[in-house]
Each structure stands twice: as structure tokens, then as C-alpha cells.
Amino acid sequence: MVAVAHGSRDPRAAATVAELLTAVRDLRPDLAVHASFLDHGPPAPDRVLDGLARGGAEDTVVLPLLLTAAYHSKTDLPGVLNRVRGRHPRLRLHTAGTLGPHPLLMDALERRLAEAGVEPGDPDTAVVLVSAGSSDASANATIARLAREWRPRGWWDVVPAYASAAAPGPAEAVAALLAAGAPRVAVASYFLAPGYFADKVENAALAAGAAAVSPVLGAAPEVARVIVHRYDEALVTSSAATAV
Q1: What is the pLDDT of residue 28?
Q2: Which candidate, 59, 192, 237, 244, has a CA 20 to 30 Å from the CA of 154?
Q3: How far is the C-alpha of 184 from the C-alpha of 212, rounded, in Å?
Q4: Residue 70 has pLDDT above 80, yes or no
Q5: pLDDT tens-digit profile of 151-195?
Q6: ω into residue 43 within 30 of 0, thus cis?
Q7: Which domains does the chain have, with CATH numbers?
């Protein structure tokens, strides 16, 4: 498996990806797992795939460590894989789906909120589900849908917000919930790793009156299980396509 993360100038991000992939190896010790990054640091996914091809690999699952399907998964990554296929036509590449949406990620969000002192499903707590935001409207719609699906777990309310490229921002969402009468507002950080956006969201949300901001998902066990699921899913899908 070649896992492809977004990449960040913040060294905490690469360290978090390494920790997460260690958890994946613990779940699947038979699986060779390689990290790569689309931007801001090595190794790039095409370099990792080139090395595997030169080493004799025949099948590889390329798995995006991305929480929503947007520009990176729809454009950047396919471009990388097309170039690799051109150089190594014998290397069979199987592309896995993005990590989200997946029910286990909602469990991971509640785990992180609990770590921040927020009881899952507390009827006196409204939640702002914050993602990075995207110029891709369908990616933002996915976050809005996740917020709607999370409401029935007992919360006062759950609303979406975005760190960039879309509205509302986290501070605006927190303020609106407090103005609507929410006894308490907590922010659920829908980020895989720490970095600029996660820090920006935390500072803005707390300044707007949020009672708590959860840590990023990171190496939560649920996230590791989603990665294994996406890996297996990619192989099954490829096998079915070959059989047809």
C-alpha cells in the first residue's frame, strides 16, 4: 500500500501520518505500507511508486489519506498515477477511495471530543463540525451531510463549518449557535493531522466562545480501521472489474 497524504510544512503533520501508518501496520502486519505526500515534503507518491516498480512490485494499492473527495483526489492524484502508468505499464495500480465519508470517522470524532471533555451525544452541547473547506462544492456538501447525520446521536444541534473557501467559518458557526440558545458549543476538528488550518480553527472557535475544540483525528484507531477497509475494498473492486 502507498498511502498518499496531503502534506504540510508543519512537521507535526508528517509525524502524525507516520503514527497512523504504524497503527495500520499493527492491524495488518503482513502488509507493506509506504507513506508519501502530495506537497510540502518528500517522498512524493510517484517516487515511491517508481521505486516499488523498479524493485519488482506487480500490484500496489494507492490510498489517499484524504477525508473528502476534492481536487487532490480527483485531479492531482490521478495525474500522478497516469504518469506512473506511462513509465511502468506492468505495475498494476489500484486506487482506493478517500477515507471519508465513513461511519467509523464519526466514532473517531466523538473519541476526540471526549478527550476534550465533551460527553458524546450530550443534549446540552451543540457541535460545529469543521473541515478544511474546498472550492469543490460536492466536498463541502459532504461535510454538511455528515453534520445532518450526526444530529440524531443526541446533540443539541450539529452544524458544518469550513476553515477556508466556503461559509460559514468556525467562529461564525459558534456565534450563531450561541445566539440561538445553545447551552454549550464544542468544535469537532475534521482534520487528519495538525497544521495551519487546525490551529486557525482552534484559535477562532475559542475566541468566538466555544467551550472546547477537539484534537485532530490523527492516529485514532477508527481511522486506522478505515484505512484497512479502504485497502481491502480497492482490491475487491479491482478483482470484480477484472472478472467482468
Answers
A1: 98
A2: 192
A3: 9
A4: no
A5: 999 999 999 999 999 999 999 999 999 999 999 999 999 999 999
A6: yes
A7: 2-99+220-243 (3.40.50.1400), 103-213 (3.40.50.1400)
Beta strands in 80-220 (DSSP E): 92-95, 125-131, 157-162, 184-189, 212-213
This prediction has a pTM of 0.94
Q: Which long-range contacts (CB under 8 A, 24 or more apart) does 146-152 make?
A: 146/100, 146/101, 146/106, 146/190, 149/106, 150/106, 150/109
Give the DSSP H/E element, type plus range, for residue 16.
helix 11-27
Q: Which cell numbers hold the place of 62?
A: 494507492
Q: Residue 231 in 3-state DSSP?
A: helix
- 226 Cβ neighbours under 8 A, 6+ residues apart: 99, 100, 102, 104, 105
Q: What contacts 179, CB < 8 A, 6 or more positions away? A: none
Spatial distance between the Cα atoms of 224 and 152, rounded to a whole number of angstroms? 25
> Mean pLDDT over all residues of the chain?
94
2: which 3 cell numbers? 502507498
Q: How far apart are CA 129 and CA 201, in angstroms?
A: 11
Q: What is the DSSP letter of 188?
A: E
pLDDT of 243 over the 60 cut: no
Contact criterion met (CB below 8 Å) for 63 and 33? no
38 residue type, one letter: L
The CA-CA-CA angle for residues 31, 35, 41, to 5°, reads 170
